[in-house]
Every structure is written in structure tokens, then in C-alpha cells.
Write a structure and sequence with these properties.
Layout lengths: L19 H4 L8 H4 L7 H6 L7 H15 L9 H27 L3 H9 L5 E3 L4 E3 L4 E2 L13 E2 L8 H6 L8 H15 L4 E2 L4 H28 L4 H7 L6 E4 L10 H4 L1 E6 L3 E3 L3 H4 L10 E3 L20 E2 H4 E5 L10 E5 L14 H10 L2 H13 L4 H12 L2 E6 L2 E7 L6 E3 L5 E2 L2 E5 L4 E6 L6 H17 L5 H9 L2 H7 L1
Parallel strand pairs: 3-4, 8-9, 8-10, 13-18
Antiparallel strand pairs: 1-2, 5-7, 6-7, 11-14, 12-13, 14-15, 14-16, 17-18
Length: 495
């Protein structure tokens, strides 16, 4: 068969004109004048080898060829010929999607073949036919943030009916953590890890902030789901899978400049492992120009705009409260005359050491009393704890060691990952009012400079630690606080 005075083509392996948009880059298309003779004798198609309908392999091969040819094309321009090209592409891609969708409905064995050939190809036309994206960059929900273009987009409503095809290509129903993580990786590649300023590069700055905020928000939802069920939920596993090589925004600026509004309008993308999440605002102001905590970040909740106090585990970031610890500036061996140590609830008659504050002496007497043990039992019974478990909880308290240290100031030490060693953080020394820390073997140490001014905080902290030892949670803190603050002469009246 001759076509327009060109070289002859074979009937075998050629497509008919109505299927032109499905395969024109993969095979010859028979002209209209030839096709007119075929319908009268359809069996000739079999004998002549005409492709009608074409095979799915040729159709998705044609789609791949078109996508490769269009890569780097400026489809977003508003020239007349570009507009016409976009209109044709929309019709052409819609026909291809429809053909593949119908093929999947009648042949399940095509799922693997189509997925392998298209899942990593920018084959989905989005953003009013101006952009081609991979299936992993597209979501069927309308929740996709428009500020994340060209890295992520919503599937056009015109293509929404091809559900079998989108299931095959694993196009997500809603934006996922993996998609936001991919956006951040692409933004890091685009910006080369350099500082992005709102004034000079608003598009990239906004995209970085939006993608990181959405990612953290999704992970928080997933963590709440897993906490409510008491175990790792399926949703959590799906959301946190493949968050490797994650980049997060950080301000690499001196601590003294962190409140500057101009500084806040710039950021750079840093590997998550190098980021330290600020969950301890009382400590962060004491850290200045310390290399291991160079990238100290804070995040706001997407719903209420408040600073968040926890970082989702899946981000893989370090947390400030776990990276640093307070230590007295004085050597403890030189402070022996100011140290009081006791085994809680141990029935001993040892009097408090001299120079011990009246409040501590009161606590000393209370913890060693039989009535205190009875009070703990009543609190536990009130929470529905069984007798055997009550006695076990009481044993936990009896093995606890309390230490109270009077000190004037502390210095921060940085805990080196993977080792037991610490590094003193230069310039982190500060006057201390009150703090406490947990040690090994149920050792709790309280550091304070003015017990009289911090009496309530002191007793509440002790109650918190006791409650943690008993239940491993924050239950019964109020009742335990009242128990610890109770005067000996009033104990039997209230408990």
C-alpha cells in the first residue's frame, strides 16, 4: 500500500485511522481511503495483519515515546501554537488513558506490565495540560497544595473516571508523606542546599515551608492513630515508609538573630539527621554557635499555629532535650555537705542530715512512714489497680533513690551519639532555679537553689516521678502531689 507518494507500507503491523492517536509513534497508520474497504470484510484484518484494535503494549509504548519527546517542553507558554498543542495533547492522552483503563478491566495480567513500564514515567498530564508528572507525584484528592507545583499536583477531574488505570499506577487517593518527602528532595536538588530567601525566591521558599508543614502534620496524625490503638497502625506504616534521605528546612543563623523577622524569611534544606528539633525552649537560648547543634529548628502546628513540643519519630531528627543535659558547675564531691540522699519508703530511723531545709525534713519523715505507703495504696485502689499490682508498684517506689542538691548554676553538656561521652557546650552556663533528672536504677536527682520559692514545683516534680515509676504514664499526678505535700499531722485525716 502506497501512502501519499511515499514509500509503500505493509498492511501487517499498521493501525487504522480511528486508532491513530493511540499508536502513531509506534507503527504506520493506514489512510482513510484504504480503511473504507476493510469494514465490508472484517476477516481480512486477520489475514492482512492490520492492528485493530492495537495491542496495549503498543499503546503504552506510544505514551512513553510521547512523554520522552515532550520532556523539557515549555507547555506552559501562551503562544497560539502551544495552546493548540495542549488541546490536542489533552484529547490524545484521554484516549490513551481510556484505552488502557478498558484493557485493564478485561485483562488483569496487564497490571504488572503496565505498572513496570509507566509507573516511573512522567505520563500524567496535569495543571491544565501544562505539565507531565510521574504517578508518584500525583494525587486524586483535591487537597494537593498548588504551591507545590511543578513537584506535585492534583489529577484533573476530566481523567478521574479511569480508576483502574490509576490503581494500577498506584496514584494516591490523598497526598502522602512519601510525596511530600519527594518534593523536599527535589527542592534540595533545585536549590543545591543553598539559603533560599523569601524576597529573592518566593516560589521555592513557600514550597519548602508548605511541603515540610504538610509532611509533619500528616506524621502527627499517623502517630495519634497509632497511639489511640496502642500499636503501630497500618496508616502509620504506610505514611512513614521510605522516608529515607529526607531533607528539612532550617535556619543556619546565630541564636542572637533567631528572632529577627528578616532572618525568619530565609531557610535552607538540611538532611534530617543533622537537624535538632527544639523541644526545650528554656535550654535553646543557652546554645550559641555550637557546631553539633548548628541546625536548631522549631515547627508550628498546621491547625492552631502554636509551636509544637514533639517531633514525629519517623522524621529521624534529634531532639534537643535528649541531646543535652544539665550539670552543676561545681564538683559534686565538693558539695557533700549540701547533698541529701534517701531511699524512699525504706523503714529507717536515720534522721535528716544537719542543714537540711524544713520542707526536705518533712518529706524525709513522710517517705519513711507506714501511712505514706497506705496513701499510695489508696490512690492506686482509686484508679482500679488490683492488690497484687499495688504491692508491685509500691516495691518500685521502695527501690527509688532521691537526691536533692543545692546548687547555684549549671552548664549544658552535649551527648555524643553512639557513645557515653559528653562535650561541655561553651557559653551555656546559667543560674539555675530548679530542675531534676532521671538516672539509672530508679535514681532521681533534684537540683535547686531556693527551695522555699519553688516548694510547689518541687513536690509536683516528685509526684510526677513517683507516678511515672508506678504507672509509666502521667496518671494520678494530682493525687500523688497532694500526698507528698500533706503535713504529717494531717496525713491520717485526709488519707
Amino acid at each position: 500500500q502506497f501512502v501519499d507518494n511515499e514509500e509503500p507500507i505493509c498492511f501487517s503491523g499498521s493501525a487504522v485511522l480511528p486508532d491513530k492517536d493511540l499508536v502513531w509513534s509506534r507503527c504506520h497508520v493506514l489512510p482513510k481511503c484504504v480503511v473504507q474497504f476493510l469494514p465490508a470484510c472484517l476477516c481480512k484484518k486477520q489475514y492482512l495483519g492490520v492492528l485493530s484494535p492495537p495491542s496495549p503494549t503498543q499503546v503504552f509504548g506510544h505514551l512513553n515515546t510521547m512523554c520522552l519527546a515532550l520532556e523539557g517542553s515549555r507547555l506552559d507558554q501562551e503562544e497560539g501554537r502551544i495552546k493548540s498543542a495542549r488541546a490536542y495533547l489533552h484529547v490524545c492522552f484521554k484516549k490513551i488513558y481510556n484505552f488502557l483503563n478498558e484493557s485493564l478491566q478485561s485483562n488483569d495480567s496487564l497490571i504488572r506490565v503496565i505498572r513496570e513500564n509507566l509507573v516511573h514515567s512522567p505520563c500524567i498530564l496535569v495543571n491544565e495540560d501544562r505539565l507531565l508528572l510521574k504517578p508518584s507525584q500525583v494525587t486524586r484528592s483535591t487537597d494537593a497544595n498548588p504551591n507545590l507545583l511543578p513537584y506535585m499536583a492534583t489529577l484533573p477531574s476530566d481523567f478521574g473516571s479511569f480508576k483502574d488505570l490509576w490503581e494500577c499506577l498506584q496514584v494516591s487517593h490523598t497526598p502522602s508523606c512519601q510525596q511530600y518527602a519527594h518534593v523536599l528532595r527535589e527542592l534540595h536538588r533545585k536549590t543545591k542546599g543553598e539559603v533560599v530567601e523569601m524576597v529573592k525566591d518566593a516560589n521555592h521558599f513557600v514550597a519548602i515551608k508548605e511541603a515540610s508543614t504538610c509532611l509533619i502534620h500528616l506524621l502527627r496524625i499517623a502517630e495519634k492513630e497509632s497511639q489511640s490503638t496502642g500499636k503501630e497502625s497500618t496508616a502509620m506504616c504506610q505514611k512513614t515508609d521510605k522516608l529515607h534521605n529526607l531533607f528539612l528546612p532550617s535556619n543556619d543563623v546565630p541564636e542572637s538573630d533567631r528572632g529577627n523577622q528578616l532572618v525568619r524569611s530565609q531557610c535552607s534544606l538540611i538532611l534530617a539527621q543533622e537537624v535538632v528539633f527544639n523541644n526545650a525552649f528554656r535550654l535553646s537560648h543557652r546554645i550559641k554557635d555550637f557546631a553539633p547543634i548548628r541546625y536548631l529548628v522549631e515547627w508550628k502546628d498546621q491547625e492552631d499555629g502554636r509551636h509544637t513540643r514533639s517531633a514525629p519519630r519517623a522524621l529521624g531528627v534529634r531532639v534537643l532535650s535528649r541531646c543535652v543535659e544539665k550539670r552543676p558547675t561545681e564538683n559534686l564531691t565538693a558539695m557533700e555537705n549540701r547533698v541529701w540522699e534517701s531511699l524512699a519508703l525504706v523503714d529507717r530511723d536515720d534522721p535528716p542530715p544537719p542543714r537540711v531545709h524544713k520542707t526536705i525534713a518533712q518529706l524525709h519523715a513522710l517517705l519513711r512512714s507506714v501511712t505514706f505507703a497506705q496513701g499510695v495504696r489508696r490512690v492506686l485502689f482509686g484508679e482500679g489497680v488490683k492488690f497484687a499490682n499495688c504491692e508491685e508498684s509500691l516495691k518500685q517506689l521502695q527501690d527509688c533513690t532521691l537526691t536533692v542538691v543545692c546548687t547555684i548554676s549549671t552548664v549544658l553538656h552535649f551527648k555524643q551519639a553512639g557513645t557515653q561521652g559528653t562535650i561541655e557546650i561553651p557559653g551555656s552556663e546559667a543560674d539555675e532555679i530548679f530542675y531534676h533528672k532521671r538516672g539509672q536504677d530508679r535514681q532521681i536527682t533534684f537540683f535547686l537553689s531556693n527551695l522555699a520559692a519553688n516548694r510547689k514545683t518541687f513536690f509536683r516534680s516528685i509526684a510526677k516521678e513517683f507516678t511515672y515509676l508506678i504507672t509509666g504514664s502521667s496518671k494520678m499526678i494530682e493525687a500523688m502531689t497532694d500526698l507528698c505535700e500533706c503535713q504529717p499531722e494531717e496525713f491520717t485525716k485526709h488519707w
